Amino acid sequence: MFSSLLCVDDVEKKALPLLPKQVRDYYQGGADDEATLKRNKSAYKKFLIRPKCLEDVSHIRTSQSFKMGKFHFEVPCPVGIAPSAFHRMAHDEGEKATAKAAGRAKTIMILSSLSTTSMEDVAKASQDAILWFQLYVYRDKTVTKRLIERAFENGYKAIVLTVDAPIFGRRREDSRNAFQLPPHLQFANFSEVQEKLAQMPDVTTGTSGLWQYAKNLFDESINWKDLKWLVETSPLPVVVKGVMRGDDAVRAVESGAAGVIVSNHGGRQLDFAPSTVEVLPEVMAAVSGRVPVFVDGGVRSGNDVFKAMALGAQMVFVGRPVLWGLTVGGSEGVSHVLDILKSELEYTMKLSGHTSIEEVQQSKNLVVPSSYFLSKL
């Protein structure tokens, strides 16, 4: 079934015609002119790899490990699944299928607050997956607190606070389509709390039901005090997702964050922001090893994964590629995408003369911007 799908782009091309227009536009779209969306992918191509030769690469290891608070995490490959909403629009088994694939890969899956499968049902389906829970802060803090409690009760190992979405960005296609969840789906994590939190409001052409939902319910006043409150409230380590500056990374660590994800929300929030891989070196330097730093956005190949590791990231998280795999083949399709990325990473490691992620991260000037060579002329 997947033999002709040799790279993530192949999977995407196979997936897109299978999706209804409204769903396809929702998954693909970015904010405003989609400059940040495009930059996330194109920026990786501007970094070059300086390979070493005559290194014994007959045996390599792609495994990665790190600590956050009292938890020690180890994954066979430094590729995890980023939080993205509404997996059941891609495949009826939705987030359960994604969790099964994460379990087979023994990697981290970050479940979105806005999932179409409850966190309890995802946990039951997850097998060997490592589950983290992504959190938006609602105006009603009791809602937020109950989500944290449920995540802890169901074996999730971290809370991932999204900090770049006090409101949702303007996604033009969603507004043109008057985006709504299909009638048989809802925000599954809220049906036990308040029915109004489980449903999108009705909208007409010119706005998005999801945008209106966030406008009505998300806390636009979220600030550093809220992060400190969350760290004090949560029995799980808190990872801050959406950091795009070194000084904000420092402040997150000082506020008690156990990890940082360099993220611009897949280009769906502020347009004309830098790409995440461009920002990664600044954040790495600012954090200076105090907590793990992760990155998402624009990763489409194992070569990209390698570059992110060489620039210091502990792991990358992928979002849209998982949705393409889910669309094409459910859980097996997601596994195929993860297998592609792992295989491509192995090739890049061998051809660059490196046998472990640790070696990649310790190799000086292994990955450089293309301007590096102009400076040598």
UniProtKB/TrEMBL annotation:
Active-site annotation: H265 (proton acceptor)
Gene Ontology terms: cellular component: peroxisomal matrix
Catalytic activity: a (2S)-2-hydroxycarboxylate + O2 = a 2-oxocarboxylate + H2O2; 2-hydroxyoctanoate + O2 = 2-oxooctanoate + H2O2
InterPro entries assigned to the protein according to its UniProt record, in alphabetical order: Aldolase_TIM, Alpha-hydoxy_acid_DH_FMN, FMN-dep_DH, FMN_HAD, FMN_hydac_DH_AS
The FMN hydroxy acid dehydrogenase domain, residue ranges: 1-370
BP GO terms, sorted: fatty acid alpha-oxidation
Cofactor(s) recorded in Swiss-Prot or TrEMBL: FMN
Gene3D superfamilies (UniProt xref): Aldolase class I
Keywords on record: Flavoprotein, FMN, Oxidoreductase
Keyword Lipid metabolism: no
UniProt-annotated binding residues for FMN: P83, S84, A85, S112, Q134, T162, K241, D296, G297, G298, V299, R300, G319, R320
Name of the protein described by the UniProt record: FMN hydroxy acid dehydrogenase domain-containing protein
Organism encoding this protein: Steinernema hermaphroditum
